[in-house]
Amino acid sequence: MRILLLMDPVIPVPPRYYGGIERVIGDLAESLDARGHQITLWAGPGSHAPGRVHPFGRVGEWSRWSNVRNTALVTARLYAHPNAFDVVHNFGRLAYLAGILSWRTPKVQTYMRPVNPNNMRKVQALGARRLHFTAVSRAIGDTGRPGGGDWHVIYNGAHPERYACRTDVDPGMAPLVFLGRLERCKGAHTAIDVARRLRRPLIIAGNISTLPHERTYFEVELKPRIDGILVQYVGPVDDAQKNALLGSAAALLLPIEWEEPFPVVLPEAMLCGTPVVVSDLPGVRQPVRTTGMGVVVPVANAAALAEGGTKVLGDKSSFVRPRAEVERAYDLDVTVSAYERLFEELIESKR
User: Fold this and answer.
1) What's this model's pTM, rounded to 2 decimal places?
2) pLDDT of residue 304
3) What is the pLDDT of residue 166?
4) Is the Cβ–Cβ distance between 279 and 187 less than 8 Å?
5) Angle 20-34/332-350 helices, nearest 10 degrees?
6) In CATH terms, are 2-157+332-350 and 160-329 the same topology?
7) What pLDDT does residue 104 have?
8) What stretches of the chain show up as alpha helix (H) in DSSP?
9) C-beta of residue 84 within 8 angstroms of C-beta of residue 2
C-alpha cells in the first residue's frame, strides 16, 4: 500500500524528547515500512522516517495564521498528486482533509486529543466520502460518535524491546516519577503534594511549555517547590533516559486534571514493570484496569493519590503482572496490525 502519514508541524517526527503523537507516528511509519508498504510522511522540519519525507510548516509555530497557511499548503500538495496514495492517514488538524473530502481516496483521521463532535457533523455536511475516524481510547470514540461517521478504537502501543522490565527495584527506596508536559492539566503540582505527604523523593521529567500562562504556572507554582532533595527536575528525557527513569521508579504518578486521551507513557511504564497511580478519568483508568498494574484514584486528590501510592510502595510485586499481559493489549505490533487491517478494508471497499 502507498500510505501518506500527515501530522501538524509543531514537533518533528519522531520527537527527540516530548511528543506523544509524534512518537506514535514515527513508530507507525517504521513498522509499516518493515511490512513492505510505501510510506510518505508530511510533518515538521527535522522529521525523518523510512520512505519519503516532505517537511512543511515551522516547528513550534501554532497560530490561526500558521494553521491556515499549513492547510493551504497540504491541500495544494494533495491536488498536485491526486493519485499518489492508496490511503491518507491524518493525525493532524481535520482541516487538512477539507479539500479532498469528496475524493474516493480512503482517508483516516486519528484522534489522540479531545474531539469536538460538531467537526464530524461539518465534514458530513460538506459531503465527506470514504472518511473513517479512529480514536486511541474508548472515551475519545464515545465523545466523537454522536457527531456521526464511522469509528474504530485503536489503542496506542509501545515497542516492548525498547523497555527493560525491572523486577529488582526496591519500592521502599526507589523514587516516584512524574513524566509529561509541565502544564497545569498534567498535574505536576499534585504529584509534588503526594511526594510531600509520603515523604518520598519525586523526580519530575518533561518539557516546560512555551505558552505564557503555562510558563507562569511553572515559574510560580512548580519551580519554588523543586528543592533538589525531595523534588528534583531533570528536564526533558530521550528514549534511553526515559527507559532508565521509568524502570528505576517505585511508581509513575499521573494526577491529570483533563480528559487525557491515552498517554503513551502508560504502556511504556508498564513495560518497564512500573505500576502507575492515575486520576479516575476514562483515557487513563482503562489501561490500568486492563492490566492491573496500578491504582485509580479521584481526580486531583492528593490524599487519595498518596493512599494509592502507599499501596504500590507497600507491595509492588502485587501490581506487576506478567509482561505478556501488557504486550497482549499494548504492544506496538497490535496497534500497527489494527491500522493495517483498517487500511486494507477501506482500500478493498473502494474497489
Assistant:
1) 0.89
2) 81
3) 83
4) yes
5) 70
6) yes
7) 92
8) 20-34, 64-80, 117-125, 138-144, 188-198, 212-217, 239-247, 265-271, 282-291, 302-314, 323-330, 332-350
9) yes
Angle at 283 between CA 317 and CA 180, to 5 degrees: 75
Fold classification of 2-157+332-350 is Rossmann fold (3.40.50)
Q: Are 97 and 125 in contact (CB under 8 A)?
A: no
> Which residues in the chain show pLDDT less than 50?
none
In this predicted model, what pLDDT tens digit does every residue of 243-261 receive, in sequence order? Answer: 999 999 999 999 998 877 7
Helix (H, G, I), strand (E, B) or coil at 178: strand
> Domain limits of the chain?
2-157+332-350, 160-329
Residue whose C-alpha is closest to residue 256's, from 158, 181, 157? 181
Which cell goes with 311? 499501596
DSSP string, 262-280: --THHHHHHHTT--EEEES
**C-alpha cell at position 294:** 496500578
48-57: Cβ within 8 A, 24+ apart? 48/12, 48/13, 48/14, 49/5, 49/13, 49/14, 55/9, 56/9, 57/8, 57/9, 57/10
Among residues 260, 69, 271, 244, which one has the least CA distance to residue 161?
A: 271
State the amino acid at position 172 in one-letter form.
Answer: G
Cell of 70: 499549513
pLDDT at 190: 94
Cell 499534585 appears where?
190
Q: How far apart are CA 14 and CA 246, in angstroms?
A: 20
Name the fold adopted by 160-329. Rossmann fold (3.40.50)
- DSSP letter string, 53-83: E---S-TT--SHHHHHHHHHHHHHHHHHSTT
- In angstroms, the CA 293 to CA 274 distance is 8
